[in-house]
Amino acid sequence: MWMQNRQVQKLGGGRLEKFGVRLWSQLQFGAIYSRKERAVYNLLRQVQRDRRTLLTAFEGYLVYSSARAQEKRPGAFAEVGVFQGGSARIICEAKGDRRLDLFDTFEGLPATTDKDAGVHQANQYTCSLESVQEYLKNYPNVHYHKGLFPDSTHDVPEQTYAFAHFDVDLYASTRACLEYFYPRMIPGGIMLSHDYDILEGVKQAFQEFFADKPETIIEQPTTQCVVVKIG
Ligand SMILES: C[S@@+](CC[C@H](N)C(=O)[O-])C[C@H]1O[C@@H](n2cnc3c(N)ncnc32)[C@H](O)[C@@H]1O
């Protein structure tokens, strides 16, 4: 492999990562431009212009296409790990009038544990709730839950989900996402996570959680993985 995972992880959130995401995305945008709907290309470009996001163009595309694929299914949409709202905006464009629940501390990452590779710091990726609310103000039925997940679920109605996007970087946060959402996903519901194959803690949380479940983890050519709930 031209760059080992540990080296990629060390880019964790710094200028190099930002540069890498931009550069990689430029190549990917060419492919999206030539093969996909122009409106989706324009959306992904706009999001990269508006907000700092850690999603490459292909990763943004997969967030959009997975959310869109759930258009006709019952259940809410959710995202844990919102940061400046880049991926949330992409989900908003795919969701129509459907309910979207957004979870974040809006004070950056919680403390890491020894299951994480030590590449992140507490409070990294801080963005205020007000800034995200302003960015997404034109989209209906978006509900914000500020605080540490899963404590921040206390005001969420008991409901089922058709689509859940996780972008939380850390073992404990990813594990909490799986424990909360898995039993609430509809059959055919999609869970999509960023960073599965570049952050050890994220991968470990998925592998441990699904070790005794019937679903399989579908690795993507991006850093992401997808799990489709069976029943
Ligand atoms: C990499 S950023 C998310 C990037 C975003 N999805 C985008 O499109 O740019 C990770 C986010 O996860 C949040 N986070 C991680 N663990 C969390 C937890 N347990 N509860 C709430 N927020 C958490 C952090 O506050 C941070 O905003």
What does this structure look like?
The protein is an alpha/beta fold and 231 residues long. The protein has eight helices and seven strands; from the N terminus they run H-H-H-H-E-H-E-H-E-E-H-E-H-E-E. The chain has a seven-stranded mixed beta sheet with strand order 3-2-1-4-5-7-6, with helices on both faces. The longest helix has 21 residues, at 15-35. The mean pLDDT is 93. It binds S-adenosylmethionine.
How is the topology of this model organized?
Blueprint: H1 5-10, H2 15-35, H3 38-50, H4 57-69, E1 76-80, H5 86-95, E2 100-104, H6 129-135, E3 142-146, E4 161-166, H7 171-181, E5 185-193, H8 200-210, E6 218-219, E7 225-228
Parallel strand pairs: 1-2, 1-4, 2-3, 4-5
Antiparallel strand pairs: 5-7, 6-7
The protein binds S-adenosylmethionine.
